[in-house]
From TrEMBL, chain A:
Residues 145-405 form the BOP1 N-terminal domain. Residues 41-85 have a biased composition (Acidic residues). Belongs to the WD repeat BOP1/ERB1 family. One of its GO terms (molecular function) is ribonucleoprotein complex binding. Residues 1-109, 302-345 are annotated as: Disordered. This is Ribosome biogenesis protein ERB1. Coiled coil: none annotated. The lineage of its organism: Eukaryota, Fungi, Dikarya, Ascomycota, Pezizomycotina. The gene is ERB1. SMART domains: BOP1NT, WD40.
TrEMBL record, chain B:
Component of the NOP7 complex, which is required for maturation of the 25S and 5.8S ribosomal RNAs and formation of the 60S ribosome. InterPro entries: NLE, WD40/YVTN_repeat-like_dom_sf, WD40_PAC1, WD40_repeat_CS, WD40_repeat_dom_sf, WD40_rpt, WDR12/Ytm1. This is Ribosome biogenesis protein YTM1. Keywords: Nucleus, Repeat, Ribosome biogenesis, rRNA processing, WD repeat. GO terms for biological process: maturation of 5.8S rRNA from tricistronic rRNA transcript (SSU-rRNA, 5.8S rRNA, LSU-rRNA); maturation of LSU-rRNA from tricistronic rRNA transcript (SSU-rRNA, 5.8S rRNA, LSU-rRNA). It comes from the Eukaryota. GO terms for molecular function: ribonucleoprotein complex binding. Pfam families: NLE, WD40. SMART domains: WD40. Component of the NOP7 complex, composed of ERB1, NOP7 and YTM1. Within the NOP7 complex ERB1 appears to interact directly with NOP7 and YTM1. The NOP7 complex also associates with the 66S pre-ribosome. WD repeats lie at residues 136-165, 170-210, 219-260, 295-337, 382-424. Residues 17-81 form the NLE domain. The gene is YTM1. The lineage of its organism: Eukaryota, Fungi, Dikarya, Ascomycota, Pezizomycotina. CDD domains: WD40.
Length: 776, 489
């Protein structure tokens, strides 16, 4: 049995190897090994016999090795009685248990060769083995063999002999004593009586009992809920996407190509060709009544119907909720008479357009509109054709209003901290500035050269500087802290300097000689102010007189003759009686003309003398009052409407030219207001061009150029043209000309003061950034 | 459309015009027999320049500028012909001149304070030509500077101070100097904010490294700072402009000058008397004299006063009151007033054209014809500066050249032939602009100073040998020279 098996295997293996040998030789010629085997190939070609020999040898080698292996495998597969086989089986089993199922053997060339164990198919495998003694005659009826002693052949070609038939008695006995599983049938394949096995009997029994035949089937096992509401964490399958998802479908391509081909060949047409219209029936004649009609002009009295206004939100089928009427409105609408209703309908929310019902009033509404158009008398109105440009006031272009300052010509740098005030001297050569560092400086205007500097105070800032008007004397008034200083800067020639010193010093004698008047004045004012001589250091530097005021003056304004100047202490804590003071240089006298607080509008801010009339203008926070000094009465109250006036200026020539005064007012609430005193106490023009508070406003002095400027905390200066004509009927022309930018905004403060050159269209500005600038 | 353009362009390049090239300068003139040449009308300045160089067969190419009818050619000939409506069949007369080459920075002399005035003493300078006794020798160029610290300094070309004037305590200027000029190689005149004109004697040692400036004469008369000073040495006359609105006319000779007005002497000031006593009065032996005439008429600061370049009996003055006045200096009478629309800050006479160039506060230079017969006030306007033009000087080589110093920190060279007609009349543009070296050294050459802060030019002087000397707020004297700038009629 074993030997037969072995021989059988041997044959099989030999055949296999022969096939493999073919593969092997082919392999030898594979291009990968070409380089190394070229010479071998040559040998092969020349000595073909040798090559074939070696091939055979190789085959033998393989066959031998395979033989052994097969034997071992056989032994593993089929149990045998041989001792050796048994041993081998044990070793194999051991090796199976302990070692991997691979053996390393040497091949013909001495290289390692891996031999793997044959895979044993288990019961689940499809591999089925034919039964050893099965009849192999196939589908031939057994009756063919009735004449023969055998009933067929087994797999080895040996006859399967017909089993011996028992005697009739045996059959009878058998029928009496029926063995378990007896059927009385003969198995056609074997010729033996067909008995049913125990398991087959049980199966039949189950079939009879209407039970399910398979073993271990539990009809009532618990349900596995595959499709439950619970969400499983892991996917049901982790299989990768199949390739077909990524490659275009060939089938589809095929079908598409089919259609394309059909389209190309014209079997499929993109659209149906238009059918030929039926021929016109020549017998019927149609007349076109309007064939030769030309468009006629509308009748001269034709008035097109007015257009209906476009629908609003409330007419929408789905209006915003604020348009929907609430209950009260709805009720009110329903209760009012249809004639009196404001609207013909109530807004209604339908949600979507398909819910909108038909409009039941359509006919009625159209009819009413037609009736309306028919009955309503319409009026022809001639439309005014006005060019909106022509309604604008005709302002001259800035080009025509030259000269005015446009660029920064000089930067005056030297002050530490803010420059609070500045003034150009009446001759137009020098510039005086005062700043937070307590110094007053005089500069050469054109070049920006500092000529003179004096430190008035270490702590207090110089709030305001002002030159005395008039070219014959050089007197500079400066307010620093509580004190006023009158100084004669040593920049002029000896004659003028002498005259100036004489002018300032003249009052010493007067004050000494006329004590009586002084005391009367002093009593009136409650607090006599004594003009005193400065300290020697200040006197050497050029200061002539010090006026201690006890409160901080924030504004100085000279009378045009230069003998008086008015100062205003605008601090909230200053008593009203001493807030405004008028100083007389020739008498060294300080008077307080206002004993009571100005009614309404807070503390006084600034004051100016009228340039030609004996009028003093005093501004408090919200109004400006004009007092006639000769008659000592209030002339006018201006209410600019500003919340807090910062500064104002009076037009230098308007009263002489037109008889009326013009005043510009700057306010901390960003407004620049032009007042024509003849017109009304309210402003004639309000200019709101700045983003921040306006600090200073100034007319060009002398009236040579009709210019004015304002300085603002936004760091810009704006130049305006403001001309006043002598004609009483025409109002002032105000044209914005230029915005001058350059000062840096430092600590929310921009440009703090501004002044004009007395003759040229140049202006100077003092900035919080510590510089002054000349603009020309 | 584009076809038309290209065809016309092709036509233009093919079109030719007959030109007659000529030059007024001998050394670059073409040979006599050179007749009119046919040139393509597409040529521009550069091509024409190459052409002329070829014709001259000059070894080193000279850059030329071309003038047609007194205007520089800035476009192609074709465009010029079209713009001026000239037929291309006429013979075009083109004058060529040497082109100006950008002036290069040579040196900067640093001072302690702002430099307000500068003048040059060289072989070709007016002061040298007026030298009576001492002959000026070449290679001894001197540069005079007047500074805001009240001192005059004399420099040689190797940036060494040869001499410095005395300080205020020793009888020098008590305030800033605003104008200073060489009268002769031995004499200097200076004036400033202390209202005096001072004449100094300048002597140099043989060693050349030390000189001495000694006060010679003090002239009193002005009541305010003196802004400008003009010198005519051959007639011993000075002309000053002051901010007291007067033009002063002075003599440099002690004997000619009248006595000084008592009230204006520093001793008359009440305050100064006191100070003088404290300071143990300096003993000043300098003679004090007054003006020959103080000519009043201006209503603003007289910013410049000059002599007529040909006739020393005629003076011109420019003022902040917008007017330019002509004075007869013999009788000290006002001859003529020309009023412009801007403040005038500087003045220069261009005698060949009978024009006065005046720098204005409105950032331009206006050329004014002072003759009574002139119909228009402003003949031409030169625009380009961005701040007040405070100093002007003639080009020593060309009758058409001019240099201006401005508060914007630049000096600009102008050629009055290079103009175009604008809506504002004839307008010119500068040929070159010289910036301050101090800005470049700070690495801020490109940045623009607001109001020319720190770099204002106060004075400019153009000398044929030394070059362009400018003084300014950056405390420097800056010397620029353009090689080849130096010639053209």
């Amino acid at each position: 049995m074993v030997a037969r098996n072995a021989s059988k295997k041997r044959k099989a293996v030999t055949r296999d190897v022969e096939e493999e040998a073919g593969v092997f030789s082919g392999d030898e010629l594979s291009p990968e090994n070409l380089d190394g085997t070229l010479s071998d190939n040559d040998n092969d070609l020349s000595e073909s016999e040798d090559g074939s020999d070696s091939e055979i040898e190789l085959i033998d080698d393989f066959s031998d090795e395979d033989d052994d292996e097969e034997e071992e495998l056989d032994s593993d597969e089929i149990p045998s009685d041989d001792e050796d086989e048994q041993k081998q089986k044990q070793t194999v089993k051991r090796s199976n248990a302990d070692e991997p199922n691979v053996r390393i053997v040497k091949d013909a060339n001495g290289n390692d060769r891996y031999l793997y164990d044959e895979i044993i198919p288990d019961d689940n495998s499809d591999y089925s083995e034919a039964e050893e003694n099965a009849n192999t005659i196939g589908d031939i009826p057994l009756t063919f063999y009735d004449q023969y002693p055998h009933i067929g052949y087994d797999i080895n070609g040996k006859k399967i002999m017909r089993p011996a038939k028992g005697e009739a008695l045996d059959a009878l006995l058998d029928s009496i004593e029926i063995p378990k599983g007896w059927t009385g049938l003969t198995d056609p394949s074997t010729g033996k009586p067909l008995n049913l096995s125990q398991s087959e009997l049980e199966l039949l029994k189950k079939v009879q009992m209407n039970e399910i035949t398979s073993e271990g089937y539990d009809q009532y096992e618990p349900l596995v809920e595959y499709f439950s509401g619970k969400q499983e964490i892991m996917p049901l399958s982790a299989a990768p996407e199949p390739k077909r998802r990524f490659v275009p479908s060939k089938h589809e391509a095929k079908r598409v190509m089919k259609i394309v081909k059909a389209i190309r060949e014209g079997r499929i047409l993109p659209y149906r060709p238009p059918e030929e219209r039926e021929e016109k029936d020549d017998t019927v004649v149609n007349f076109d009544l309007w064939a030769d009609e030309v468009e006629r002009k509308d009748h001269i009295m034709h008035i097109p119907a007015p257009k209906l206004p476009p629908p609003g939100y409330e007419e929408s089928y789905h209006p915003p909720p604020e348009y929907l009427p609430d209950k009260k409105e709805r009720k009110e609408w329903e209760q009012t008479d249809p004639e009196d209703r404001e609207k013909e309908f109530l807004p209604n929310d339908y949600g979507s357009l398909r819910r909108v019902p038909g409009f039941e009033n359509f006919i009625k509404e159209k009819f009413e509109r037609c009736l309306d158009l028919y009955l309503a008398p319409r009026v022809r109105r001639s439309k005014l054709n006005i060019d909106p440009e022509s309604l604008l006031p005709k302002l001259p272009s800035p080009e025509e209003l030259k000269p005015f300052p446009t660029t920064c010509a000089t930067v005056f740098r030297g002050h530490k901290g803010r420059v609070r005030s500045l003034a150009v001297d009446p001759t137009g050569i020098w510039l005086a500035t005062g700043g937070d560092d307590g110094t007053v400086r005089v500069w050469e205007l054109l070049t920006g050269r500092q000529l003179w500097s004096i430190k008035l105070s270490d702590e207090d800032a110089v709030n305001v500087v002002s030159w005395r008007p008039g070219k014959d004397h050089i007197v500079l008034a400066a307010a620093c802290g509580d004190d006023l200083y009158l100084s004669v800067p040593p920049i002029a020639d000896p004659e003028i300097e002498k005259a100036s010193l004489e002018l300032v010093d003249a009052g010493w004698g007067y004050a000494a000689n006329a004590p009586a008047l002084n005391t009367v004045e002093a009593k009136k004012a409650n607090k006599p102010v004594q003009w005193i001589r400065p300290s020697s250091a200040l006197a050497d530097a050029g200061v002539s007189v010090v006026i201690p005021l006890r409160y901080v003056p924030k504004s100085i304004s000279w009378h045009r003759r230069g003998d008086y100047f008015v100062t205003v202490c605008s601090g909230a804590s200053t008593p009203a009686s001493v807030a405004i003071s008028i100083h007389t240089i020739s008498k060294h006298l300080t008077q307080f003309p206002f004993r009571r607080r100005l009614k309404g509008g807070g503390p006084p801010q600034t004051a100016h003398f009228h340039p030609s009339k004996p009028i003093l203008f005093v501004a408090n926070q919200r109004s400006i009052r004009a007092y006639d000094l000769s008659r000592q009465l209030l002339v006018k109250i201006l209410q600019p409407g500003a919340r807090w006036i910062s500064s104002f200026d009076i037009h230098p020539t308007s009263s002489t030219a037109s008889g009326g005064d013009n005043i510009i007012i700057g306010s901390y609430d960003r407004r620049l207001l032009w007042h024509d005193l003849d017109l009304s106490p309210r402003p004639y023009k309000t200019l709101r061009y700045h983003r921040k508070a306006i600090r200073a406003v100034k007319f060009h002095p002398g009236g040579r150029y009709p210019l004015f400027a304002d300085a603002s905390d936004d760091g810009s200066i704006q130049i305006f043209h403001g001309s006043v004509t002598g004609d009483m009927l025409s109002n002032a022309t105000i044209v914005p000309l230029k915005v001058l930018k350059g000062h840096k905004v430092t600590g929310e403060l921009g440009v703090l003061d501004i002044d004009w050159h007395p003759r040229e269209a140049w202006c100077v500005s003092a900035g919080a950034d510590g510089t002054c600038r000349l603009w020309m | 459309m584009s076809d038309e353009q290209t065809s016309s362009a092709v036509e233009a390049t093919q079109r030719q015009v007959r030109v007659q090239l000529m030059s007024k300068q001998e050394d670059i003139a073409l040979p006599e027999n050179t007749g009119p040449i046919l040139v393509p009308t597409g040529l521009r300045r550069y091509a024409l320049s190459t052409l002329v160089n070829n014709l001259l067969s000059s070894e080193k190419p000279i850059p030329f500028e071309f003038l047609i009818n007194g205007t520089f050619l800035r476009t192609s000939i074709d465009e010029y012909l079209t713009a001026n409506g000239i037929s291309s069949e006429t013979t075009l007369e083109i004058e060529y001149v040497r082109a100006l080459i950008p002036p290069l920075h040579i040196a900067s002399f640093e001072h302690d304070d702002w430099v307000s005035a500068t003048d040059v003493l060289s072989e070709a300078s007016p002061a040298a030509s007026w030298a009576s006794g001492a002959k000026f020798s070449k290679g001894q160029e001197r540069i005079l500077s007047g500074s805001y610290d009240g001192l005059l300094r004399i420099w040689n070309m190797s940036s060494e101070i040869v001499a410095t004037s005395i300080g205020p305590s020793d009888g020098g200027h008590t305030s800033s100097i605003k104008a200073a000029k060489f009268v002769s190689p031995n004499q200097i005149a200076s004036a400033g904010l202390d209202r005096t004109v001072r004449l100094w004697k300048y002597t140099e040692d043989a060693s050349d490294f030390t000189g001495k400036i000694t006060p010679q004469l003090e002239l009193y008369g002005h009541k305010s700072g003196i802004e400008s000073l003009a010198v005519h040495a051959s007639s011993n006359r000075l002309l000053t402009g002051s901010s007291d609105n007067n033009v002063g006319f002075w003599s440099t000779k002690k004997a000619d000058a009248p006595a000084a007005p008592e009230t204006l002497l520093p001793s008359s000031s009440a305050r100064n008397v006191k100070r003088r006593k404290l300071n143990a009065t300096v003993s000043v032996s300098t003679p004090q004299r007054g003006p020959l005439a103080l000519m009043s008429g201006h209503t603003g600061t007289v910013s410049a006063a000059i002599f007529d370049a040909k006739d020393s009996t005629v003076g011109y003055s420019a003022s902040w009151d917008h007017s330019l006045r002509t004075w007869d200096l013999v009788t000290a009478a006002l001859v003529d007033t020309r009023t412009t629309s801007h403040s005038l800050l500087s003045l220069e006479h261009l005698p060949e054209h009978n024009l006065l160039a005046a720098g204005t506060a409105a950032r331009h230079i206006t050329l004014i014809d002072p003759r009574a017969s002139a119909t228009t006030v402003a003949a031409m306007t030169l625009r380009g500066h961005t701040n007040a033009v405070v100093s002007l000087a003639r080009d020593p080589h060309s009758a058409y050249g001019l240099i201006s110093g401005s508060h914007d920190g630049t000096c600009r060279i102008w050629d009055i032939r290079s103009t175009k007609t604008d809506k504002d009349g004839v307008v010119g543009e500068s040929v070159y602009s010289i910036t301050r070296k101090s800005l470049e050294e700070e690495g801020k050459a490109e940045s623009k100073r607001v109001g020319g802060e720190g770099v204002k030019v106060f004075s400019v002087c153009w000398d044929p040998t030394v070059g362009i000397v400018s003084a300014g707020e950056d405390k420097r004297i800056q010397i620029n020279r353009g090689e080849g700038v130096l010639s053209s009629q």
